[in-house]
C-alpha cells in the first residue's frame, strides 16, 4: 500500500514537472520587451553627440528579432541577424547607406555595449549603446 502511494506521488510529480518544463520552454526570453536609451559618440571637437534609440525585441531561444527607431511610435527598422548567447546580445540594423552592428551585454534591466556603424563607402564609426528595459506600469 505504501509503495502504491509513493508511485502515485511520483506520477503526480512527473505530470506537474512536465507542465512546468513546457511553460518555461515557451516563456519569452530575458531580452524580450521594450528597450529605451541612446547611442552616443564623441565628434572631432570632443563633444558628445547622442541619438535616441527605442527597440522592441522578441527572443525565441537564441534567436532575436524585432524593430527599432528613435521612439516607440517611430519603428522604421528591422532587427536582422539577432542572436542571444548567455548574457551577450548581437544584432544588425540597416539604415539608408549604413549597417549598424551592435554587440551588448544584458544585466538585469540594462543592455550596454557598442554599435559599429559601417557606411557603404567603408567609413566606420563606433558608438556607445546604452539601453534600459521599459517597465510597464
The CATH superfamily name is Calycin beta-barrel core domain
- List unreliable stretches of 5+ residues: 1-28
Let me know the average pLDDT: 81
Q: What string, H for helix and E for strand, traces the elements in order?
A: HEEEEEEEEE
Number of domains: 1
Q: How much helical structure, as a percent, in the residues?
A: 10-25%
List the quaternary state of the chains: single chain
CATH architecture descriptor: Beta Barrel
Largest sheet: 8 strands, antiparallel, barrel
Radius of gyration: 21 Å
Termini, distance in Å? 53 Å
- As laid out across the biggest beta sheet, the strand order is 1-2-3-5-6-7-8-9
CATH topology: Lipocalin
Structural class: alpha+beta
Number of strands: 9
**Beta-strand content bin:** over 45%
Count of helical regions:
1
CATH class, anyone?
Answer: Mainly Beta
What sort of overall outline do the alpha carbons produce when their principal axes are compared? globular
